[in-house]
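Milestone M4 deliverable, item 7.
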Amino acid sequence: MLPSNTLKHSGALRAGALLAALTLLLSGCGAGTDVQTRNVGTRTVETAQYAGAETHHTSSENLVFVTSSGLVELYYDSATDSAAVRETNTGTMWQALPAARTDGAEVQSAVVTAEVSNGGTVYTLNSQDNATAFGTSAFQPTQNGMELTYNMALDAETAALNVADVPAGAPYVSVTVAFTLEDGALRVSVHCSDILVSTGFVLERLTLLDWFGATDSAAEGDYMLLPDGSGATEAIAGTSSDAYTEKTFVTYGADAALGEQAETADGSIAFTSALLPVYGMKRGESAFVAIIESGDAISRITSHRAAGDVLYNRVGATFCVTDTALLGGEGDQTLYTGNAYTGELGICYRFLSNRNAGYSGMAAACREVLIRNGVLPSQAASVPETLPLLLTAYGAAAKNNPNRSETLTDYMQMQELLRLLKAKSVDNVLLRMSGALDGATSQGLLKSSDLSGKLGSEKELEALLQYAQTQQFSVYLNVDIASFGRRSARKSAHAAENIAGDTLSMAVNNPFTGVAGDAQHTRYLLRQTEIGENVDAFVNDFHSLAFSGYCIDDAGSTLYSDYASAGNTRTVAAGLMQEQAATLAAGRTLMVDTGNAYLLRDADIVVDLPSAAVYPETDGYTSVPFVQMVLHGLVAYAHEPINLAENRETAFLKALEYGAMPSYAWDYTKTGDETIDTVYHYESQINTAAANYLTAAQTLGDLQDARMTAHYEVQDGVYCTEYNNSTTLYFNYTDEAVTVNSITVEPMSCQRVN
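Output delivered:
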């Protein structure tokens, strides 16, 4: 069967998907609903034959003006049937195809690349070699832009045919790309329902404008913005020696139904997750940011850094139009073909110049687009008077026997933790109760869940909730809405299925394995057809309990197809998760773990928001608070708990720098396992946590509804964060005091300037 998708539990859950269909070993060869199977032996890839440099480069003399909006103009390249955008205030050109290199080196760039298959062969057709070179591409003006149609095939004769006349066994794809300029933004779209593919062939992937803005030359300070963690910048000046010169980011993480794995066989990174489907590039005094507005759940973003045979720096998007998986041993492989996406693929490009040309400006533009599209709320629901401290309290840890658990913190002990924090002047606590439902930290099926009797009586829970309310604290019940453990449900009755028809599961790390359970818990992903019923039943059962809200633990990081029945795609799943978030948020506040974009609309707080990149950081590859700049003032957030960090002092300072509330994850009872108690037991940490909270409240308390307008490195180890209320914060990560603009910042500290 397909291997489980292993997810991390100690912070943001990171997973993703491979670029190509995976070759995996199966114990048996079934198939999910509406899945086609075909034995293909060994699969091969046939790439397009290079037709010459003249079809792959844009030259200014071939550009024809199409339309303008705001400070940008759209042009049609009549020689290559491609597009370009010009910023009128700076004169910067952003081209779908790169300019020719001065050394004459050639590249196989394209506006569109389609991967189509017919059994054992994948054909990679592109707009330039398989259409423009044959004279089978066409330009059509529209009201606010243009459409470019590419009829692609292996030879000119076939490319010139109508799809109905294409000979059997010949690959053919016709794709129309719409370029629309409005409100100073470029929108590029493809309607998948209009794509024509020859009989017997499947369109697996479509890559759209991945050469847009590609450059072979850059100045110091130029970079690509990539969706790694909370965001990362990759410098593009010079030639890279980084081991990961190509990086892939799968929007919303891996699809467990396709057996996708974030690590390769040798343990290196194959890809990582993207919380927001966003990327960009800065060149000189200009920049663009691209937001995938439709088709995001099937998208992935890939960057290429100039190195070796890679001659251009570039970043762009690929869409996995049809689910595929290649399963079996070498020479005896079976191709599984599942759901096909029939909706729109859409990317919005915003262009920035001068002071806005950087990741701060990109974040502001992205925020505006996401608010307009209803992905983000237009304003925060409420802003507390004092900055909160997030405390995750572990109630009970699951043992291997699904009916047994180890109590770590009962209701009265949770109340005592709140009392101790209050006594130390922590005036606002958000208590996240983990492991409080049946199944403990491996929660059972939500719709049949009840509060675990291991944590105390109903009267003791009421006392905890009443105390929290009296102190103006908040209590959130941790819930899994898309997965379940073994205790309360038979997997055969409720579990989703992968493309091979096997039960769909994932492995979740168990931080308390030293005292309860194995190193990992197996969790089964719930059938998509039951997700709504699951949440509705829970809300009806728990509506009388005075929780401030709920924390969705799984759905903010886990998105999957379900082949237990027809039509359960990742796109459908994203919509279902969003609907359930709205249900849980009705009349209460809502937390979301990790924070994939489809859950942000109704979220008040995101917890375990990534603060570091997954790909190794280098001098040229650096984490930045891009997601934080998008969210700040609209959705509150916290990073991974400080006590789980390798360096707690640095983690706390990073939280301040990124505008995050301090976060801790504790238990009350010592387990006797020194490793666990050192990390999770509150007693040795509470004084430092309270002191950190007071510093954070003084630093960030009145900035909770402010916009983070700028972030940058002042000098090595010294950073600056600016807000729209004229507040500036300096952070010094070095071991010596530094002076910035006549302000002295002590080692490992923050200095606020109003």
